[in-house]
Design goal:
The protein has about 300 residues and is mainly β. The chain is built from 4 helices and 12 strands; from the N terminus they run E-E-H-E-H-E-E-H-E-E-E-E-E-E-H-E.
């Protein structure tokens, strides 16, 4: 199952679990973005950057592989992520999983040790690369058409990622696609029930490190629920999953036609008022991340 479809530029799909990737003519039951590393013991390997990388908050969190929740939130100026001008246009993206960790143990990792081992084998050892299209566009700031900025085309990027990971007919509807909220209806490739994914941004930060280096992060609350398209007026249905996910991306412009990105996602549990087991797992996590993944993403101009 693919979830957290969109964080930052739409190059992260993480942490729930239904058949997710179409491979060699059949649907792969391994979650593209949910379990990694091959060790029998829980991995504690940091997501390494060059020695001089920790020059700011986001790079420091990524380099130190912090599993504590982020301290930054939403500021008045953080209406979106404002990308450098060189992002503008269409790109071909190739995302490779470097590592996945279960800092709080397999019992708190979605799908347990079996999912951890399976995704490790598929994505890390066999080096399964997710390839998709990405696009960055010009957006106006409010009513002032003369004031604009470069932003990720969230709806386009999410659809392309889902198509690559789940098949061409995975995204059935996108009723909301804004910087602070994104909602979509997904049709799993195995033909099971439709699900609705709501992604609400609760934290955002960006840092310009140099003319050719840019870092950004978003923290989102991801709510996965059964779709209610057949009975929209029915009784409320409890969500299948509620999590918070921080995605940090550090981009380096290699030349005018290529951008390199080191990306890290960290998933945090949230307390549940209706599910005693989910509440207990949240207590056990003690506020720490239960699922950490690192990716190398290369953007080549299309």
């Amino acid at each position: 199952l693919v979830s957290a479809l969109l964080c930052n530029d739409g190059s992260t799909v993480s942490a729930y679990s239904f058949p997710s990737r179409v491979s060699k003519g059949k649907h792969d039951s391994v979650n593209r973005r949910t379990a990694l590393a091959q060790l029998a013991l829980v991995s504690s390997t940091p997501c390494l950057l060059p020695a001089n990388a920790a020059q700011n908050i986001l790079e420091a969190r990524l380099q130190e592989n912090s599993i504590a929740p982020p301290t930054y939130g939403m500021e008045a100026s953080d209406t979106d992520i404002f990308y450098p001008q060189y992002f503008l246009g269409s790109w071909k993206a190739a995302s490779s999983t470097v590592d996945i960790q279960a800092p709080c143990g397999f019992q708190l990792f979605a799908g347990g040790k079996a999912a951890f081992d399976s995704a490790t084998q598929k994505e890390v050892i066999e080096k399964d690369v997710l390839q998709y299209k990405a696009r960055f566009i010009t957006q106006s700031r409010g009513d002032d058409a003369s004031s604009s900025y470069i932003a990720a085309d969230r709806e386009f990027n999410t659809k392309e990622i889902a198509k690559a990971a789940m098949g061409g007919y995975s995204v059935l509807d996108v009723p909301i696609a804004t910087p602070n909220r994104f909602s979509c209806v997904l049709g799993p490739p195995d033909g099971s029930n439709l699900i609705c994914v709501d992604i609400i941004t609760i934290g955002r930060k960006s840092e310009s490190l140099s003319d050719d280096k840019f870092a950004c992060s978003e923290v989102v609350r991801q709510i996965v629920s059964p779709a209610r398209r057949n009975n929209p007026n029915g009784a409320p249905v409890p969500p299948l999953s509620v999590k918070e996910i921080e995605t940090i991306s550090v981009y380096t412009k290699l030349d005018n036609d290529k951008i390199q990105c080191r990306q890290r996602t960290a998933t945090y549990l949230v307390p549940s008022q209706t599910d005693p087991l989910a509440f207990k797992k949240w207590q056990m996590s003690e506020g720490k991340s239960v699922d950490v993944r690192c990716y190398d993403v290369i953007y080549s101009r299309a």
